[in-house]
Amino acid sequence: MPIAIQQTDILALLMITHLIASLVAAELRNLRAAIWALVVQSFLLACIIASFAFVWNNYTLLIWAFITIATKVVIIPALLFYMLHITSLTVELRPLIGLRASLLFGTVLIVVFYWILRTYIYFVAPTQAAMVEPARSSLTVAFCIFSLGVYVLITRRDVIKVVIGLHLLENGAHLALITLAPALPTTTKLGIWTNVVVAAYMIVKLTEGIYKTLGVTDTLALSELKR
Considering its fold, how many domains does the chain have in total? Predict the structure, then answer.
């Protein structure tokens, strides 16, 4: 019993740190630093998955943790650093919301969402398993990170930051999936992560082509070009 309590405490600490790292990755204006924050955020996700493997005695989740490290800690950040290299950008384009206002709004968004979701988690995931710790906290954190990713997608103009927002959204969705369906077959897990890597690669190649042709990475400018 003491070991289980220690594992649960470690898992709770990982979730809180994971949530903070998500906010840092979303709000940092230095693109290289934001990518490194995303690396930390993804590594913490892998640690959470590995912790679930021991808390739930489901050691197949260790394979999922390894895949997370390979795809989200190594491959996708490498693609983002490649985007930085080809565009020579260091600071993201001015977002639709200023830094202070965005940081305040992002923090409030997380705090409010966390309180609402933790209090009324049954309406989001109406299962008995979702009401029990650590699943309850995990789902709450997952939906908070998902909403933060959506917020970044809406308010950011820089294509690299848009990819980071998409990555946050995916990490939140994956954390929820792990919590609700930890017994997914390994082949299904591989398929999910393969799709994520392929999507990131396609975005990088598309961005490279647009930048070489038009010299912009501003998604707002690209939307205006359609007119």
Answer: 1
Q: Buried b vs exposed e over 172-185: b needs ≥16 C-beta within 10 Å?
A: bbbbbbbbbebebe
192's CB contacts (< 8 A; 6+ apart) are 174, 177
Terminal CA-to-CA distance of the chain, rounded, Å? Answer: 64
List of E strands, the chain: none
Q: 6 CB contacts (<8 Å, ≥6 apart)?
A: none
**What pTM does this model have?**
0.84
pLDDT in tens, 13-34: 899 999 999 999 999 999 999 9
Residues 6+ apart with CB under 8 A from 212: 86
Burial of residue 68, with CB atoms counted within 10 A of its CB: 0-12 exposed, 13-18 middle, 19 or more buried: buried
Phi/psi at 30 (5° precision): -75, 120
pLDDT digits (tens, 9 = 90+) for 102-155: 888 888 888 888 888 878 777 766 666 667 777 888 888 998 999 999 999 888
* 118 falls within a domain: yes
Domain that holds residue 123: 2-218
